TrEMBL record:
Domain Luciferase-like: 29-390
Keywords of this entry: Flavoprotein, FMN, Monooxygenase, Oxidoreductase
Protein name (record): FMN-dependent oxidoreductase (Nitrilotriacetate monooxygenase family)
CDD domains the record matches: Nitrilotriacetate_monoxgenase
Species this protein is from: Oerskovia jenensis
Keyword Flavoprotein: yes
Phylogenetic placement of the source organism: Bacteria, Bacillati, Actinomycetota, Actinomycetes, Micrococcales
GO molecular function, one term: monooxygenase activity
Similarity comment text for this entry: Belongs to the NtaA/SnaA/DszA monooxygenase family.
Amino acid sequence: MATAGSRRPRLVLNFVLRVQGSHGAGWRHRSSEIERVPTLDYYADLARTAERGVFDSLFLTDTLAASANPEDALQWPLDPVTILGAVAARTTHIGLIGTHSTTFNVPFNTARQFASLDHVSGGRAGWNVVTSSTDLAAPNYGLDVLPEHDERYRRAAEYLDVTIDLWNAWRADAVVADRAADRLVDTDGIRAVNHQGTYFSVRGPLNVPRSPQAVPLLAQAGSSESGRDLAARYADLVYVQQNDLDEAVRFRTDVRSRAAAYGRRPGAVVVAPGLIPFIGRSVREAQELQHELLDLHGTDRLLERVSTVIDRSLDGYALDGPFPVDLVSDARDTGQSKSLAYRIAEYTSTGTYTLREVLAWVDSGSFHRTIVGTPEDVADGIQHWFERGALDGVSVIPPVLPRSFEQFVDEVVPILQRRGLTESSYGEGTLRDRLGLPAPVSDESRFTGHFDTLPSVSQHVPTA
């Protein structure tokens, strides 16, 4: 069995499940199964496909508001923790990572939900820690707008500290269950955390025993300064947008360096950039799928959208001519959430893309790296970045579901396995065990015995 801290599998495979597919027109494709999106069978079938490909984890994205775009109305229809708990019963090995906001929740509920998921999945739970990024969610929680960007990250850091403390508040041997001695728990093994901070006041402990991983896997998505720092301090897996190889290498180096400054082992952070694969028996066939989806969504609509975000007219430019990179030369990175104009500038910096290819990339969804080609082309692209030190894993975001994911699992994964880049079977142990990622521990100096400070049992009346 692998142990925490041991060498993890060569290349981590993370399946990012955007349930309509990553592409804006993915749901319209003849192979999509959009009608099944609100059903458990849809998620379970995709999770089992991921297990067939020996994926390490399934990463369920989420947002806390109805989309402003009616074509995305079914992209995030079900609560991640709820659906992953049900998927746990229909799978055996794959890690189950659910998105959950620190802006619109409280640590006790989060700790209880993910500890419960970790128990019912046998140690396969993970939490994608997000601070939320759309003002559409704010009125659903009594706010007019989101708190300021860096303020959300300061809250998230304290939120994580409290949640980790709550997970550690039960010692591993706290449940005794000695029937003869009438002793259910070791009362010294259950502690109040007594947190008093800027954003939260939490006594604790949880009413959930320590879970198999103690602390479910922690994931984080984002590349701002605050996001990098949060990732380096807490994250086990970082899901990030990267389109340029050199920038991806710099990002991974930076996050690992920051992790070391926090006293962590640099290799304890898995950097897994997003990848959108368009796969065909030939490059031309893969391009045909990409262009078919662009046509379904509407080329004119995309031209108008890109013209608006770069504040420049694209009238008169040939679709199959070079993208006019000078039109985005003044786009700037604010150090927080990157604008679409800046992402386009990053993507087109090589000057090798046509206008149609840029429109197709924008339309592919999420602005992640896109590879269009044969299964060998996709495998080559992954291997090249891996060997150059740009990533520890890939977060696969299929443009059309289930077709594109089945193609990746059945056609790309066997190539990666033959090359010795990914595992061909699952190891034993929890998700953390298999990835060789140790759980964070708490400073227990302020913890106190939970039962030492409570009134007598007779004064406690259970409530619903």
